[in-house]
Amino acid sequence: MGLERIASKAFLVIGRVGMDLTPSPAGARTRDATAMMVAMGGSSANIAAGLCKLGCKAALLTTVSDDSIGWYCLDQLDHYGIDRRHVTAIKGEVRTSLAVYETRMDEHQSVIYRNNAADFQMTVADVEAVDYTAYGGLITTGTVFSAEPSRRAAFRAFELASAAGVPIILDVDYRPYSWPSSTIAQDVLSRAAELSDVIVGNDEEFGFMAGDINKGLEKARALRDAGATIVVYKRGPDGSITFAEGGEIRTGIFPVTALKPTGAGDSFLAGFLASLGEGRPMREAILRGSACASIVVAKPGCAPAMPFVAELEAFLSAHPGVTSA
Asked: Is the model's pTM score more than 0.85?
């Protein structure tokens, strides 16, 4: 499917929103914490926040618990300008996700509470209530497929988006703790990738889908050959290889002093898609996404660290070069 609709810069993002707790000041360990920075979290919500801060429109489709944590998340969506008309608060024993992670690289600890997660309660009825023609792209992360009824609902959303001519963007985002088994994860994520127009993942994630960590690059090429319009194969500090426009684009990264390892992927995707929406050339869009990733790892928080346009431009002016890929 072509990506012309991305020019509308209006995206529907499916997946969780949660609360992040980070020991403060930066560098503090959780076990020593006496104060915490509180912020909105969840990969999908982070992506949506990044898009809005870069001048796009983003709506989130998910479910949250009808309690103080869920209400916090709803207020935070409003704070970032994320459309929450498709976010449903549900009662019962389900809970909105909570993440506790450190702003430190050395012996970094992230602990995510996902037991009986509210976002996994998203249903087919929830996704069928959406007008997909209002959006230029549907974005989701692999986590939405890791449990039912969210898995069935997400695949139904793919069907509806495709029928409406809306390109599907998948961040593989494989997190073992969310899945009942690696075998199920491999099968489901591979099926989701085969239905997607834009696929973004790291070397380990593509290797996982291939069944062999050493065959990740081969898997990325295979998905491109099977019909994906863009496949971004991220290699951490070695940059990325993007399969697009009939070729392979190799790009490096913008070196920074990282405070934490979290948030880079969400910020990359937001920056990359916002740049494509602006009509920028593929290589430039990739590099702007990479710049967004570098900005976020060098600051506390995820959604709060996502750059506005002026911050991104200032960073690019101060960092004119990237590492070789």
From this structure: yes
